[in-house]
Protein backbone atom coordinates (compact mmCIF):
# COMPACT_ATOMS: atom_id res chain seq x y z
CA UNK A 1 0.00 0.00 0.00
CA UNK A 2 1.52 3.35 -1.03
CA UNK A 3 1.02 6.11 1.52
CA UNK A 4 -0.14 9.20 -0.38
CA UNK A 5 -2.24 10.66 2.43
CA UNK A 6 -1.67 14.21 3.57
CA UNK A 7 -0.18 17.42 2.28
CA UNK A 8 2.54 17.34 -0.39
CA UNK A 9 4.47 20.48 -1.29
CA UNK A 10 5.75 20.77 -4.88
CA UNK A 11 8.89 22.77 -4.31
CA UNK A 12 9.95 25.81 -6.29
CA UNK A 13 13.49 25.83 -7.69
CA UNK A 14 15.38 28.69 -6.02
CA UNK A 15 17.92 30.46 -8.23
CA UNK A 16 20.99 32.43 -7.18
CA UNK A 17 21.64 35.93 -8.51
CA UNK A 18 23.85 34.21 -11.12
CA UNK A 19 20.92 32.10 -12.32
CA UNK A 20 22.25 28.88 -10.83
CA UNK A 21 20.02 26.47 -8.94
CA UNK A 22 20.52 27.26 -5.25
CA UNK A 23 20.63 23.79 -3.72
CA UNK A 24 21.30 25.13 -0.23
CA UNK A 25 18.14 27.22 -0.34
CA UNK A 26 16.22 24.27 -1.79
CA UNK A 27 17.36 22.03 1.07
CA UNK A 28 16.32 24.69 3.61
CA UNK A 29 12.93 25.12 2.00
CA UNK A 30 12.31 21.37 1.81
CA UNK A 31 13.20 20.96 5.48
CA UNK A 32 11.01 23.87 6.55
CA UNK A 33 7.83 22.62 4.90
CA UNK A 34 8.33 19.18 6.45
CA UNK A 35 8.97 20.78 9.84
CA UNK A 36 5.71 22.68 9.42
CA UNK A 37 3.55 19.62 8.80
CA UNK A 38 3.82 18.55 5.16
CA UNK A 39 3.68 14.78 4.68
CA UNK A 40 6.02 14.82 1.71
CA UNK A 41 7.84 16.68 -1.05
CA UNK A 42 7.20 16.80 -4.77
CA UNK A 43 10.33 17.30 -6.86
CA UNK A 44 10.15 18.76 -10.37
CA UNK A 45 6.43 19.56 -10.26
CA UNK A 46 5.13 22.34 -12.51
CA UNK A 47 6.03 24.69 -9.69
CA UNK A 48 9.73 23.77 -10.07
CA UNK A 49 9.88 25.19 -13.65
CA UNK A 50 11.08 21.76 -14.84
CA UNK A 51 10.95 22.68 -18.53
CA UNK A 52 13.51 25.42 -17.85
CA UNK A 53 16.00 23.16 -16.06
CA UNK A 54 18.86 21.29 -17.70
CA UNK A 55 19.38 17.55 -17.13
CA UNK A 56 22.08 18.09 -14.50
CA UNK A 57 19.97 20.63 -12.67
CA UNK A 58 17.02 18.23 -12.66
CA UNK A 59 19.18 15.48 -11.17
CA UNK A 60 20.57 17.81 -8.51
CA UNK A 61 17.08 18.94 -7.50
CA UNK A 62 15.86 15.35 -7.18
CA UNK A 63 18.96 14.36 -5.18
CA UNK A 64 18.47 17.17 -2.65
CA UNK A 65 14.77 16.37 -2.25
CA UNK A 66 15.56 12.66 -1.84
CA UNK A 67 18.16 13.41 0.84
CA UNK A 68 15.86 15.66 2.83
CA UNK A 69 12.93 13.24 2.54
CA UNK A 70 15.12 10.34 3.68
CA UNK A 71 16.50 12.31 6.65
CA UNK A 72 12.94 13.10 7.79
CA UNK A 73 11.29 9.80 6.90
CA UNK A 74 8.99 11.83 4.62
CA UNK A 75 7.42 10.89 1.29
CA UNK A 76 8.85 11.89 -2.07
CA UNK A 77 6.99 12.16 -5.36
CA UNK A 78 9.08 12.93 -8.44
CA UNK A 79 7.43 14.37 -11.53
CA UNK A 80 8.79 12.34 -14.43
CA UNK A 81 6.29 12.81 -17.23
CA UNK A 82 6.73 14.74 -20.44
CA UNK A 83 5.10 14.81 -23.85
CA UNK A 84 6.79 11.89 -25.54
CA UNK A 85 6.55 8.30 -24.42
CA UNK A 86 10.20 7.31 -24.89
CA UNK A 87 11.55 10.16 -22.76
CA UNK A 88 8.82 9.63 -20.19
CA UNK A 89 9.77 5.94 -19.94
CA UNK A 90 13.46 6.78 -19.60
CA UNK A 91 12.76 9.32 -16.84
CA UNK A 92 10.69 6.77 -14.92
CA UNK A 93 13.30 4.04 -15.34
CA UNK A 94 15.94 6.41 -13.97
CA UNK A 95 13.98 6.61 -10.72
CA UNK A 96 15.22 3.11 -9.90
CA UNK A 97 18.48 4.82 -8.91
CA UNK A 98 16.84 7.35 -6.56
CA UNK A 99 16.34 6.01 -3.02
CA UNK A 100 13.04 6.51 -1.24
CA UNK A 101 10.76 7.55 -4.11
CA UNK A 102 7.14 7.05 -3.08
CA UNK A 103 5.75 7.53 -6.59
CA UNK A 104 6.31 9.18 -9.95
CA UNK A 105 3.95 11.94 -11.05
CA UNK A 106 3.09 11.37 -14.70
CA UNK A 107 1.38 14.15 -16.58
CA UNK A 108 -0.97 13.68 -19.52
CA UNK A 109 1.23 14.45 -22.57
CA UNK A 110 0.90 18.15 -23.37
CA UNK A 111 1.07 20.01 -26.73
CA UNK A 112 0.75 16.86 -28.89
CA UNK A 113 -3.01 16.41 -28.28
CA UNK A 114 -3.24 12.60 -28.56
CA UNK A 115 -6.68 10.94 -28.47
CA UNK A 116 -8.06 9.87 -25.09
CA UNK A 117 -7.29 6.23 -25.96
CA UNK A 118 -3.71 7.20 -26.81
CA UNK A 119 -3.26 9.02 -23.51
CA UNK A 120 -4.46 5.91 -21.67
CA UNK A 121 -2.07 3.77 -23.76
CA UNK A 122 0.81 6.14 -22.94
CA UNK A 123 0.12 6.09 -19.19
CA UNK A 124 -0.37 2.31 -19.21
CA UNK A 125 2.93 1.75 -21.05
CA UNK A 126 4.72 3.95 -18.52
CA UNK A 127 3.10 2.24 -15.52
CA UNK A 128 3.95 -1.20 -16.95
CA UNK A 129 7.66 -0.35 -16.91
CA UNK A 130 8.02 2.18 -14.11
CA UNK A 131 10.14 0.95 -11.18
CA UNK A 132 8.01 3.06 -8.83
CA UNK A 133 4.22 3.45 -8.56
CA UNK A 134 2.60 6.07 -10.76
CA UNK A 135 0.34 9.00 -9.89
CA UNK A 136 -1.46 10.34 -12.97
CA UNK A 137 -1.54 14.13 -13.32
CA UNK A 138 -4.73 15.33 -15.02
CA UNK A 139 -4.40 19.07 -15.75
CA UNK A 140 -6.22 19.92 -18.98
CA UNK A 141 -5.59 23.65 -18.69
CA UNK A 142 -1.89 22.91 -19.11
CA UNK A 143 -1.98 19.86 -21.39
CA UNK A 144 -4.81 20.58 -23.82
CA UNK A 145 -6.16 17.10 -23.14
CA UNK A 146 -8.23 16.03 -20.15
CA UNK A 147 -9.13 12.56 -18.95
CA UNK A 148 -12.75 11.85 -18.01
CA UNK A 149 -14.04 9.47 -15.35
CA UNK A 150 -14.14 6.37 -17.59
CA UNK A 151 -10.48 6.74 -18.61
CA UNK A 152 -9.38 7.59 -15.08
CA UNK A 153 -11.19 4.58 -13.62
CA UNK A 154 -9.59 2.33 -16.28
CA UNK A 155 -6.20 3.65 -15.22
CA UNK A 156 -7.08 3.26 -11.53
CA UNK A 157 -7.48 -0.47 -12.15
CA UNK A 158 -3.81 -0.76 -13.17
CA UNK A 159 -1.87 -2.29 -10.26
CA UNK A 160 0.99 0.22 -10.61
CA UNK A 161 -1.19 3.33 -10.90
CA UNK A 162 -1.84 4.28 -7.30
CA UNK A 163 -3.24 7.76 -7.50
CA UNK A 164 -4.42 10.81 -9.35
CA UNK A 165 -3.50 14.45 -9.03
CA UNK A 166 -6.75 15.97 -10.21
CA UNK A 167 -6.48 19.58 -11.39
CA UNK A 168 -9.47 20.32 -13.58
CA UNK A 169 -10.32 23.72 -12.11
CA UNK A 170 -13.56 22.52 -10.52
CA UNK A 171 -15.15 19.75 -8.53
CA UNK A 172 -16.79 18.37 -11.68
CA UNK A 173 -18.92 15.29 -12.23
CA UNK A 174 -15.96 13.26 -13.51
CA UNK A 175 -14.04 13.96 -10.30
CA UNK A 176 -17.09 12.98 -8.23
CA UNK A 177 -17.38 9.71 -10.19
CA UNK A 178 -13.73 8.88 -9.60
CA UNK A 179 -14.03 9.71 -5.90
CA UNK A 180 -17.10 7.48 -5.68
CA UNK A 181 -15.89 4.51 -7.70
CA UNK A 182 -12.10 4.22 -7.58
CA UNK A 183 -10.70 1.13 -5.85
CA UNK A 184 -9.87 1.59 -2.14
CA UNK A 185 -6.10 1.63 -2.68
CA UNK A 186 -6.30 4.45 -5.24
CA UNK A 187 -5.62 7.94 -3.86
CA UNK A 188 -7.22 11.04 -5.35
CA UNK A 189 -5.16 14.13 -4.50
CA UNK A 190 -6.41 17.69 -4.95
CA UNK A 191 -4.18 19.30 -7.57
CA UNK A 192 -5.92 22.67 -7.53
CA UNK A 193 -5.14 24.56 -4.35
CA UNK A 194 -8.64 26.03 -4.04
CA UNK A 195 -10.32 22.59 -4.06
CA UNK A 196 -8.57 20.81 -1.20
CA UNK A 197 -11.55 20.95 1.16
CA UNK A 198 -14.26 19.43 -1.06
CA UNK A 199 -11.92 16.89 -2.62
CA UNK A 200 -10.71 15.50 0.69
CA UNK A 201 -14.13 15.70 2.37
CA UNK A 202 -15.48 13.52 -0.45
CA UNK A 203 -12.82 10.86 -0.03
CA UNK A 204 -9.66 12.34 -1.57
CA UNK A 205 -6.56 11.30 0.32
CA UNK A 206 -4.70 14.63 0.33
CA UNK A 207 -3.33 17.42 -1.81
CA UNK A 208 -0.34 18.55 -3.85
CA UNK A 209 -0.36 22.26 -3.13
CA UNK A 210 2.15 24.89 -4.26
CA UNK A 211 0.56 27.54 -2.03
CA UNK A 212 1.58 25.46 0.99
CA UNK A 213 5.15 26.74 0.76
CA UNK A 214 3.69 29.36 3.10
CA UNK A 215 1.18 28.87 5.92
CA UNK A 216 2.11 25.18 5.65
CA UNK A 217 0.74 24.45 9.12
CA UNK A 218 -2.66 25.75 8.16
CA UNK A 219 -2.80 23.79 4.86
CA UNK A 220 -1.74 20.64 6.75
CA UNK A 221 -4.46 21.30 9.31
CA UNK A 222 -7.01 21.72 6.51
CA UNK A 223 -6.11 18.32 5.04
CA UNK A 224 -6.12 16.70 8.48
CA UNK A 225 -9.51 18.18 9.39
CA UNK A 226 -11.03 17.23 6.03
CA UNK A 227 -9.69 13.66 6.29
CA UNK A 228 -11.34 13.40 9.69
CA UNK A 229 -14.61 14.93 8.44
CA UNK A 230 -14.46 17.85 10.88
CA UNK A 231 -16.52 20.16 8.72
CA UNK A 232 -16.53 23.21 11.00
CA UNK A 233 -12.73 23.23 11.16
CA UNK A 234 -12.52 22.61 7.42
CA UNK A 235 -14.72 25.60 6.67
CA UNK A 236 -12.63 27.80 8.92
CA UNK A 237 -9.28 26.72 7.44
CA UNK A 238 -10.54 26.84 3.84
CA UNK A 239 -11.99 30.33 4.30
CA UNK A 240 -8.79 31.59 5.90
CA UNK A 241 -6.61 30.19 3.10
CA UNK A 242 -8.67 31.06 0.01
CA UNK A 243 -7.47 34.71 -0.29
CA UNK A 244 -3.88 33.48 -0.05
CA UNK A 245 -4.44 30.86 -2.76
CA UNK A 246 -6.08 33.31 -5.13
CA UNK A 247 -3.33 35.87 -4.51
CA UNK A 248 -0.60 33.30 -5.25
CA UNK A 249 -2.31 32.21 -8.48
CA UNK A 250 -3.08 35.74 -9.71
CA UNK A 251 -0.10 35.32 -12.07
CA UNK A 252 1.32 32.11 -13.56
CA UNK A 253 2.56 29.69 -10.91
CA UNK A 254 5.20 29.95 -9.40
CA UNK A 255 6.04 33.61 -9.95
CA UNK A 256 4.07 35.08 -7.04
CA UNK A 257 5.03 32.26 -4.68
CA UNK A 258 8.71 32.85 -5.47
CA UNK A 259 8.31 36.59 -4.94
CA UNK A 260 6.64 35.95 -1.59
CA UNK A 261 9.28 33.44 -0.48
CA UNK A 262 11.96 35.96 -1.39
CA UNK A 263 10.19 38.84 0.33
CA UNK A 264 9.94 36.78 3.50
CA UNK A 265 13.64 35.86 3.37
CA UNK A 266 13.27 32.19 2.49
CA UNK A 267 14.91 32.10 -0.95
CA UNK A 268 17.75 34.28 -2.23
CA UNK A 269 16.04 35.75 -5.30
CA UNK A 270 12.48 35.89 -6.63
CA UNK A 271 13.85 34.92 -10.05
CA UNK A 272 12.01 32.72 -12.51
CA UNK A 273 13.38 31.67 -15.87
CA UNK A 274 11.88 32.90 -19.11
CA UNK A 275 9.36 32.49 -20.64
CA UNK A 276 8.00 33.31 -17.18
CA UNK A 277 8.39 36.91 -16.04
CA UNK A 278 8.76 37.97 -12.40
CA UNK A 279 5.73 38.77 -10.30
CA UNK A 280 4.26 42.25 -10.51
CA UNK A 281 4.68 44.43 -7.42
CA UNK A 282 0.88 44.51 -7.05
CA UNK A 283 0.59 40.74 -6.94
CA UNK A 284 3.34 40.49 -4.34
CA UNK A 285 1.73 43.17 -2.17
CA UNK A 286 -1.60 41.34 -2.33
CA UNK A 287 0.07 38.01 -1.44
CA UNK A 288 1.95 39.56 1.49
CA UNK A 289 -1.31 40.99 2.81
CA UNK A 290 -3.12 37.68 2.37
CA UNK A 291 -0.35 35.77 4.16
CA UNK A 292 -0.37 38.30 6.97
CA UNK A 293 -4.05 37.62 7.57
CA UNK A 294 -3.60 33.82 7.91
CA UNK A 295 -3.18 32.94 11.55
CA UNK A 296 -0.96 29.84 11.47
CA UNK A 297 -0.98 29.56 15.26
CA UNK A 298 -4.65 28.58 15.25
CA UNK A 299 -3.82 25.06 14.25
CA UNK A 300 -0.89 23.83 16.29
CA UNK A 301 -2.81 20.85 17.66
CA UNK A 302 -3.93 19.70 14.21
CA UNK A 303 -0.56 19.51 12.47
CA UNK A 304 0.38 15.85 11.95
CA UNK A 305 3.85 15.06 13.22
CA UNK A 306 6.50 13.96 10.73
CA UNK A 307 9.31 11.86 12.13
O1 LIG B 1 3.84 21.79 -9.22
C1 LIG B 1 2.78 21.28 -8.89
O2 LIG B 1 2.72 20.08 -8.59
C2 LIG B 1 1.57 22.08 -8.89
N1 LIG B 1 1.31 22.79 -9.92
C3 LIG B 1 0.07 23.37 -10.14
C4 LIG B 1 0.18 24.32 -11.29
O3 LIG B 1 1.10 25.12 -11.34
O4 LIG B 1 -0.68 24.26 -12.17
C5 LIG B 1 -0.46 23.97 -8.90
C6 LIG B 1 -0.47 23.03 -7.77
O5 LIG B 1 -0.50 23.74 -6.59
C7 LIG B 1 0.69 22.09 -7.73
From TrEMBL:
Transmembrane segments: none annotated. Its main location: cytoplasm. Gene3D superfamilies: Aldolase class I. InterPro entries: Aldolase_TIM, DapA, DapA-like, Schiff_base-form_aldolases_AS. Keywords: Amino-acid biosynthesis, Cytoplasm, Diaminopimelate biosynthesis, Lyase, Lysine biosynthesis, Schiff base. The active site is at residues 137, 165. It is found in: Cytoplasm. Catalyzes the condensation of (S)-aspartate-beta-semialdehyde [(S)-ASA] and pyruvate to 4-hydroxy-tetrahydrodipicolinate (HTPA). PANTHER family: 4-HYDROXY-2-OXOGLUTARATE ALDOLASE, MITOCHONDRIAL, DIHYDRODIPICOLINATE SYNTHASE. Belongs to the DapA family. Homotetramer; dimer of dimers. This is 4-hydroxy-tetrahydrodipicolinate synthase. It comes from Actinomycetospora termitidis.
Amino acid sequence: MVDLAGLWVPLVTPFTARDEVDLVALRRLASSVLDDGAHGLVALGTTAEPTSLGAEERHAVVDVCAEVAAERGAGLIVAAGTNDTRTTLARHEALADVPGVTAALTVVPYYVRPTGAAVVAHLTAVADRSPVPVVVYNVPVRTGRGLGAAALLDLAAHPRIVGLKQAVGALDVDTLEVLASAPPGFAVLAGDDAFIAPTVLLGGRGAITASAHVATERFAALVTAASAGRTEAVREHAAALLPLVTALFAEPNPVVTKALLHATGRIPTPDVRMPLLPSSAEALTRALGALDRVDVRRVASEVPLTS
